[in-house]
Write a structure and sequence with these properties.
Blueprint (H helix, E strand, L loop, with lengths): L5 H18 L2 H4 L6 H24 L1
């Protein structure tokens, strides 16, 4: 039976949740933006939106 590394599992869960939040935005999930630059800009925009929402949630 393999050993369970709780720290590794927590990190993996965090990454999977972030990817899920990014994919919840339709423009990223469907890749309507065909150029790599516009797709990357969309990723940055969505990540910024998630980050700002998290910041405002923790300050209240």
């Amino acid at each position: 039976m393999p050993n369970h590394d709780a720290g590794l599992h927590k990190g993996r869960d965090t990454v999977e949740r972030l990817i899920s939040k990014l994919k919840a935005w339709r423009g990223i999930a469907t890749r309507y933006d065909k150029t790599p630059d516009s797709y990357l800009a969309g990723l940055h925009l969505r990540a910024s939106m998630i980050w700002i929402k998290d910041l405002t949630r923790t300050t209240h």
